[in-house]
Amino acid sequence: EAQVTQNPRYLITVTGKKLTVTCSQNMNHEYMSWYRQDPGLGLRQIYYSMNVEVTDKGDVPEGYKVSRKEKRNFPLILESPSPNQTSLYFCATRKGRYNEQFFGPGTRLTVL
Amino acid sequence: GIQVEQSPPDLILQEGANSTLRCNFSDSVNNLQWFHQNPWGQLINLFYIPSGTKQNGRLSATTVATERYSLLYISSSQTTDSGVYFCAVGFMNRDDKIIFGKGTRLHILP
């Protein structure tokens, strides 16, 4: 079954404690992205990757890091989380630039 | 600058009614999708439609790229249609970013 998985689905943490949210896809897609969703602001792209070892900033990259060492995985790293990073995070994949995106189930992060 | 605007922001309808949701965009596009976010937060693909018209059951969508808008039609609404509808756009001659509109919140009353 084609799917995008994210872990964890829910996380409560404290300011400054490094964390990683994993994203994995089994569709052999080239493109992967991370978004955050906040009330009244819709979804905003954090980072995206066009292929292994190729990443670029989205509209809200501050405070986040990503890596793409394997095609199927695209982890989102928060080196020093802050309360303003409390949000709902989505990972998404697409085959190429002119293809539809498929979203993971979301990760709800709370930073105290 | 680059913009994606959705209207109306909120819509309340009785079950069985029809609705039209609009997405305006500020430049030429090479990627456009409509999504439904259900009350549990899941994002469900509705249409990939950078141009033309598509239909899937009670839902249909039209994108008029030359006039920079897309429409999502929902006919004979059901309570399960409630949620937020987003359009997401990739622009030509720009990087590979995808920009989401702020969504239309639809509430269908039984």
Give a description of the structure.
- Chain A has 112 residues and is mainly β.
- Chain A is built from no helices and eleven strands.
- In chain A, strands 2, 4, 5, 6, 9, 10 and 11 form a seven-stranded mixed β-sheet that branches.
- In chain A, a hairpin with a 6-residue loop joins strand 9 and strand 10.
- Chain A is globular.
- The termini of chain A are far apart.
- The mean pLDDT of chain A is 96.
- Chain B is mainly beta and 110 residues long.
- Chain B is built from no helices and eleven strands.
- In chain B, the strands form two sheets. In chain B, strands 2, 4, 5, 9, 10 and 11 form a six-stranded mixed β-sheet that branches. In chain B, strands 1-3-8-7-6 form a five-stranded antiparallel β-sheet, with no helix packed on it.
- In chain B, a hairpin with a 4-residue loop joins strand 7 and strand 8.
- The radius of gyration of chain B is 13 Å and the shape is globular.
- The model of chain B has no long low-confidence stretch (mean pLDDT 95).
- Classes of the chains: A mainly beta (112), B mainly beta (110).
- The interface between A and B is medium-sized, with 25 and 22 residues.
